[in-house]
Amino acid sequence: MHIPDDQYTLREFCRVIIESSESVLKGYHYNQIKSFFYLSEDGWEEYLEGHYEVEDFGEVTKFVGEYVNRKGAEQIAEFYVGEYEQDLQMIITAETEEAIRQSLQPVFERSEHLSPMPIMTEDFQQMNEIVLSRYEDMRISEFKSKRVPSLADARIRPDVDREIEYRGIDGRERLDEFRDEYGVVPTRIQYEHENVQIKIDTSGKFTLLTINKESFEILFELVREVVQNVLNLRDVARSIKFEKKEVMPGNLKITVPEVSSGEIVFDQEVTLLQAENFLRGTRNSDELNFSFSDVTAEAGSLDFSAQVADETRGSLFNVSATEDSMRIVPKQDCSFPSLVEFYLAIIQLLDGGAKMHLYETQSAS
After folding, report:
1. At what angle do helices 336-349 and 213-239 cross, to 10 degrees?
2. 30, 96 in Cβ contact below 8 A?
3. N or C: at which end does the chain have fewer Cβ atoms within 10 angstroms?
4. pLDDT at residue 39 above 60?
């Protein structure tokens, strides 16, 4: 992106893109802006500086990486990041998916200070309502929907867990029909209108296919709708931790472990088959980096347990689940991004209506 050297706030930076989109995007094959939101904590800026060339643009920072394009040539990839709200960073780029996959994602996946902003399925439905109520003639050309019993009743085989992807000019009508018939709700949508084309999904990625003031206004409005719930989730993940504390019983000073565990409450009863599919889906995912060991699983009244490792960050935690909920007990070096991304895996692959909260804190006596 060709951004004039200056000092910008995040909104001033977006205004430059809107008012000078032709020059800003000159040389890019697709005139698209992609925006990613990341939860953050202290130390993320130093991490960024340790992995990229950075340049200050006021409240916005440019960072540059490298990747190999489809022709085998090395190229640079440019990204810009600014603070949308405290502890929530907004990344803006015009780079290709290949550049993002090679230059952005691997570095951010290893950070203990940054985590993709997941959007809860219920919040995503509210975002959809905002867009459709703002534009009565808005078209939906593409969507992906999943079965979430708490958000939609199913007329046809309500006990079946299902996922549907659809592309077509009648997407808005089909989305409602699939919801009524099969009890599925959207987790990714592409909207098309005379002045606005935008794609959103529950992983916190927004793609602006039209670059104008209206598109950015919708983007900011949608993020405002979910930001508080997202920050609350980050606080829960940060509270699930393993610590060592010094205590003084009498004249002694000893160090004891203190464990704050979490719980994911399922929206629907989980079966052994669903738990096994979750393990398989997580292992086969190109975007998730969790491995499972010491797995035990029994059918009937579900009894499932495993040790989970985040292979990129080194985080380690134990999980134990019944058909109604899953306990998360952290071990040493368990970072908040690992827990946020594990929760994201749960709502993507197991139960779209699941909720995570702090369970209890225990100290060794």
Report:
1. 110
2. yes
3. C
4. yes
Q: How many CA atoms lie within 13 A of 308 on its CB side?
A: 28
- The answer to whether residues 158 and 149 touch, using CB atoms and an 8 Å cutoff, is yes
Count other C-beta atoms under 10 Å from residue 248's C-beta. 8
User: Which structure tokens are listed for 250?
Assistant: 């009498």
Residues in the chain: 365
Angle at 225 between CA 219 and CA 228, to 5 degrees: 120
Taking each helix axis as running N to C, give the angle between helix 272-284 and helix 336-349, from 0 to 180 degrees, rounded to the nearest 10.
120
Query: pLDDT for 140-193, tens place per residue?
Result: 999 999 888 878 889 999 888 889 999 999 999 999 999 999 999 999 999 999
Cα–Cα dist 18/358, whole Å:
42
Of all residues in the chain, the percent with pLDDT exceeding 90 is 58
Residue found by looking up tokens 């950070």 in the block = 111
Closest CA to 83 of 70, 92, 75, 74: 92
Distance CA 189, CA 250 (A): 62
pTM reported for the whole predicted model: 0.86
Mean pLDDT of 73-93: 94
Looking at this protein, which amino acid is placed at residue 52? Y
pLDDT tens, position by position, 110-155: 899 999 898 888 899 999 999 999 888 999 999 999 888 878 889 9
Q: Is the pLDDT of residue 364 over 60?
A: no
CA atoms within 13 A of residue 12's CA, in its CB half-sphere: 10
Calpha distance 334→241 (Å, rounded): 6
Element housing 317 (H / E): strand 316-321
Chosen CATH of 240-363 out of 3.10.450, 3.30.310, 2.60.200, 3.40.1360? 3.30.310
The residue whose two tokens read 């893109």 is: 17
Where do the domains of the chain lie?
10-116, 121-235, 240-363
Do 327 and 261 contact (CB within 8 A), yes or no?
A: yes
- How large is the C-alpha radius of gyration of the chain? 22
